[in-house]
Design brief:
This protein is α/β, with parallel strands linked by helices. The chain is 38% helix and 18% strand. The structure holds 6-O-phosphono-beta-D-fructofuranose.
Length: 354
């Protein structure tokens, strides 16, 4: 497409990559609006890195970002395209950056997209990263936007499941997202008063879980809520190797439903009627909470300020209540797993008197 640029203005390109997450549009809007303040114009790149390969771009105006703040998803679309998968694609990216006069990129993404951003930055392309993910697993930032929304959705679901579990004297297992980390399961489990919380960081045994729930029944409590992250593993059967055909295009394990497995086993060992609810992508869709809208807005403005300062190869981050920045290199070095002290606290208040 032919993009008309205003004389004297530098162009920022903005893209969203990886799984979507509530708050992406709030970042896009903030980048465009803060851009005005620093004399940048903004070019939206469609479908993550793919749009930069294909030259699929659209100018973002005040008009185009009007009303998007409360909207879930991303107006730009997203993909999991790897910009460095082959030389030809990367050359197209370099070509399009020149063609559209892009001074710097704002790359909004999770671990995969930000790792690619780090590598692209090393190839000399000026960019800054913005951490998004409902999983809250990016290092160097206290929180990622999207997490608060996901936790609110899961907490509301647990509250609803509580009343039906109690009425029917059932166990209800709630499977939530969290491939490698249990931030959503643990935080929403605590907020919703779950009776057991199982996360990827701490492998569980059926014995332990049954013991915990049996103690509740012996104390006269006739129902239980168990929250399990999709990536949780059983210690007693080990973690079997995942064959190629059980992996998605990014090499991630395709989950087969640990919640269902757990539900069946609990019913068998405790003899209590059990139901399973898998919340899935409901956790990622819809409008962001006020907290996520504000955090996303702060991140978007900070990203533009980094570009204005020429401080590239960085990721914006929240530390304490301050927005700061860290190198992309340190942000993607390792996933931010659940804080052990927070986990201990969760275990202390879960399941009642031992
Ligand atoms: O990274 C966010 C996340 O929501 C994970 O918790 C989940 O495992 C994954 O994305 C699922 O993504 P998709 O179904 O889009 O491949």
């Amino acid at each position: 497409m032919n993009v008309r640029r205003e004389e004297g203005l530098k162009t920022i390109g903005v893209l969203t990559g990886g799984g979507d997450c509530p708050g992406l549009n709030a970042v896009i809007r903030a980048v465009v609006r803060a851009g005005f303040a620093y004399d940048f114009e903004t070019l939206g790149i469609r479908n993550g890195w793919l749009g930069l390969i294909d030259g699929d771009v659209e100018p973002l105006t005040d008009f185009s970002v009007s009303g998007i703040l409360p909207k879930g998803g991303t107006i730009l679309g997203t993909s999991r395209t790897n910009p460095l998968a082959n030389t030809a694609d990367f050359q197209k990216i370099q070509h399009n950056i020149k063609k559209y006069g892009i001074h710097a990129l704002v790359v909004i993404g999770g671990d995969g997209t930000l790792s690619a951003a780090r590598d692209v930055a090393k190839q000399g392309i000026p960019l800054v990263g913005v951490p998004k993910t409902i999983d809250n697993d990016i290092s160097g930032t206290d929180v990622t936007f999207g997490f608060d929304t996901a936790v609110s959705i899961v907490t509301e679901a647990i509250d609803r499941l509580h009343t039906t579990a109690e009425s029917h004297h059932r166990i209800i297992v709630v499977e939530v997202m969290g491939r490698n980390v249990g931030w959503i399961a643990l935080t929403a489990g605590i907020a919703g008063g779950a009776d057991a919380i199982l996360i990827p960081e701490v492998h569980f045994t059926m014995d332990e879980v049954c013991r915990k729930l049996r103690a509740r029944y012996e104390a006269g409590k006739k129902f239980s809520i168990v929250v399990i992250a999709e990536g949780a593993h059983r210690e007693d059967i080990g973690v079997p190797p995942v064959p190629e055909h059980d992996r998605d295009e990014c090499g991630h394990e395709k989950f087969v439903g640990v919640g269902n497995m757990l539900g069946k086993e609990l019913e068998r060992c405790l003899g209590v009627e059990t139901r399973v609810t898998t919340l899935g992508h409901v956790q990622r869709g819809g409008s962001p909470t006020a907290y996520d809208r504000v955090l996303a807005t702060r991140f978007g403005v900070a990203a533009v300020e980094l570009i204005h300062a020429g401080d590239f190869g960085k990721m914006v981050a929240l530390q304490g209540n301050r927005i700061t920045s860290i190198t992309l290199e340190s942000a993607v070095q390792q996933l931010k797993t659940v804080d052990p002290a927070f986990y201990e606290l969760g275990m202390m208040v879960t399941g009642g008197k031992k």
